Structures are given as C-alpha cells and as structure tokens.
Amino acid sequence: MRLAAVGDLHVKKTSLGQLQPLLAPVNEHADLLLLCGDLTDYGLKEEALVLAKELTAAVRIPIVAVLGNHDYESGQPEEVTRILTEAGVHVLDGEALEINGVGIAGAKGFAGGFGRATLGAWGEPATKRFVQEAVDEATKLEGALARLRTERHIALLHYSPVRSTVEGEPVEIMTFLGTSRLEGPLNRHPVDMVFHGHAHHGSLEGRTSNGIPVYNVAMPLLLQKFPGRPPFRVVEVVASPTSETVAAMESAVKAAGLRQPPIGSAAHAAENG
Ligand SMILES: [Fe+2]
Ligand SMILES: [Fe+2]
Predict the structure, then answer these.
(1) Which residues keep their CB under 5 angstroms from ion ligand 1?
(2) Which bound ligand lies closest to the C-alpha atom of 111?
(3) Cα 225 to ligand 2 centre (Å)
(4) 37 CA to middle of ligand 2, Å?
(5) Closest listed ligand to the CA of 39
(6) pLDDT for 7-24, tens place per residue?
C-alpha cells in the first residue's frame, strides 16, 4: 500500500485553486493520503471550506488527517473537523482507523522538548498544565495504537516525537516543535512508521530510540528540499515476514506526466532491502 503524506498546508481564504494542482498527482502515486495538521492557517471555518473544496476537487483516494496548532487558533477546531469530515476526510484525535489492512493511529501531539530537556510538571500551575497537555496527547496516541489490530501500524502526528526531525530549526524553538513524551507510545507498540509536520525547517527523516522511521512531511520543508516535485512524501508499506516488518521504498518513479517522481525514501528502502 502506497502512503502519501504531507502536513502544514496552511490553507487561507484566498487559497482556492492553489492546492489542487499540487495535490492532484497524489491519485496516481498513492492509495491513501495522510495530512499531518496545520491544514488551515488560522483555524477558520472559511479556510476549512476552501480546503474541503480543494481536497474534493483534487483527491480521489481516502484521506486521513490530524489537526495542528494552527487549526486551533480561532477556537473552533470542532468546526474545522466537521467541515473536513463532511468532505470525506477521516480526522483523527486519539482514534484509530483501518484502511485496507493498514492501521492508522492519529493525534495532534504537543510540545515540551526532547530527551533530558523535556519540560517536567514541576513548579507553577501553568507549567503543570502545559506538561499535562503533552501527557494527554501522548495518552491519546497510546490509546489509539493499542486499539489497532492490523498487521501494519502507522502513527500520524502534527508535533514531532523525536528531536532528529526538528534539527535545522533554531535551537531556541525546538522545545515548541514536539516532545519525547510522544515517543514512549511509539516504542511500546509495533509501529512501522511515523509521519508528522509542524517543523517547517526541520529535517526529513529520523528514528525513534527503537529505530522506528519518523518522517517530517511539512509541506514547506518538502518544497524546499525537493523543488519541482509534488509536495507529498510517498512511502510504500510492504508486508514482508522474512525481513523487517516494513520495507519503505521509492514509489511510483514511473510517474506518467511528471517531470520528476514524487518524493520517496530510497535510503530507507536500501537499508531494509
Ligand atoms: Fe505549520
Ligand atoms: Fe504547527
């Protein structure tokens, strides 16, 4: 099964017609589209309606999404979710979904920093509330992963669970780009790969401490690293009982009508054979 993933579309009221040409190639290159949050720029109903129109017009494969922090900005994430859901998008917030034998667990995630620099729930009540949000999001992710009964497990996030895919961003803001609190659930379940966004200037690939591949698919990052290519990452999930649980490989190089193939992960395919 070919998964296409992208985050940080940041659709504005004026974006009508702009996303369709970018996303239309996804139909021939993938079987499922994953959207990793910051789907709208200000979390406005009007922006969600534009996005719904763009997705409906351009994408004919199933779409699974999580929201990002920008989708919360106007205090109506439920409206954003409702509009996208009515357009056929599966919006996950601590839920699990199975599509063609592939299980997807989705949650927004939250910030708080990585490793020994992870913010602790200590001191002022405001600090404790901040940390609790990260704990709650990690709990949502864990619950969703625990419900999957499929052979393949995919985790969908907005914030990063590892430091390696936010590297490239100013060190001063790394604490706000994700948290290691999201990494525990990933390592405790048989997760095959993780997709996230949010770090527009981070790094494309990393791994959890257990070696699970993590892909930062923020659209600005993909456009910067792969100019001229369709701005989504394509990874194939392959059932392979004789090798590692998942082989991810360059996909759809045979793309018809494209100047260059979509963004795959040749390096990972080579490692896994
Ligand atoms: Fe973003
Ligand atoms: Fe974000």
Answers:
(1) 8, 38
(2) 2
(3) 19
(4) 7
(5) 1
(6) 999 999 999 999 999 999
Percent of the chain with pLDDT over 70: 88
According to the model, what pLDDT value does residue 261 have?
Answer: 63
Q: Which residues surround the ion ligand 2 when the cut-off is CB under 5 Å?
A: 38, 68-69, 198
Q: 3 alpha carbon to ligand 1 midpoint, in Å?
A: 21
Is the pLDDT score of 270 beyond 50?
no
The average confidence (pLDDT) of the chain is 90
Give the pLDDT confidence score for residue 141 in this predicted structure. 98
Q: How far, in Å, CA of 237 to CA of 115, rounded?
A: 29
d(CA 253, ligand 2 centre) in Å: 30
Q: State how far the Cα of 35 lies from the Cα of 199, in Å rounded to an integer.
A: 14
From the CA of 218, the nearest ligand is 1
Residue 85 has phi, psi (to 5 degrees) of -65, -40
Looking at residue 238, its pLDDT comes to 80
Instruction: Give the closest ligand to the alpha carbon of residue 70.
Output: 2
Distance CA 157, CA 78 (A): 18
Span from the CA of 220 to the centroid of ligand 1 (angstroms) = 8
> Does residue 248 surpass a pLDDT of 80?
no
